[in-house]
Amino acid sequence: MRYVDWEDRLNAYLSEQNGKAFAWGDFDCVRFSMGAVEAITGVDHTEGLEWSNEAEAKALLDEKSLEDRLAEKFERVPPMFARRGDIAMYDGACGIVAGRLAYFVGDPWRAVPLDKLGAAFRV
Questions:
Q1: Model pLDDT, residue 107
Q2: What distance separates the 2 farthest-apart alpha carbons in the chain?
Q3: What's the predicted TM-score (pTM) here?
Q4: Which of 1, 49, 120, 121 lies deepest, with the highest CB count within 10 Å?
Q5: For the structural domain made of 6-122, what CATH number should be given?
Q6: Do 27 and 33 form a contact (C-beta atoms < 8 A)?
């Protein structure tokens, strides 16, 4: 369940993270997305999604995809029905919906329209 002031919390989180450099296990798509989820709900959902480098991430996600792991934790919704604060999937990475776009960390960061998303999950 989201905090009453979840939008303010999400705005603050996104502002703090804006432009931060990608780093496997420290600030990758999962850390970014789960950090946003924790900011708006107070719940840490990183269990089962933890690694310290690219090789560990690849090994874990070779066993079960990131999308499948997220589907175990969150309700899947059609991408066009995703709302602000929901988790988005694009090109194998997860991000956060913020209006009509979803934001993904990387080099460079990407903003992807909802109609281009591969999947979305309700937070």
A1: 81
A2: 39
A3: 0.95
A4: 120
A5: 3.90.1720.10
A6: no
Share of the chain above pLDDT 90, in %: 95
From residue 19, give the alpha-carbon distance in Å to each of 3, 55, 65. 25, 24, 26
pLDDT tens profile 48-91: 999 999 999 999 999 999 999 999 999 999 999 999 999 999 99
Question: How far apart are the C-alpha atoms of 41 and 51, rounded to whole Å?
Answer: 23
Give dist(CA 12, CA 60) in Å, integer.
31
Residue 121 has pLDDT above 90, yes or no: yes
Helices first, then strands: H and E counts in the chain: 4, 6
What DSSP element (H or E) covers 121?
strand 119-122
Domain ranges of the chain: 6-122
Beta bridge partners, 89, equal 94, 119
And the tokens for 111? 């903003």
Query: Mean pLDDT, the chain, as a whole number?
Result: 96
CB 13 within 8 A of CB 28: no
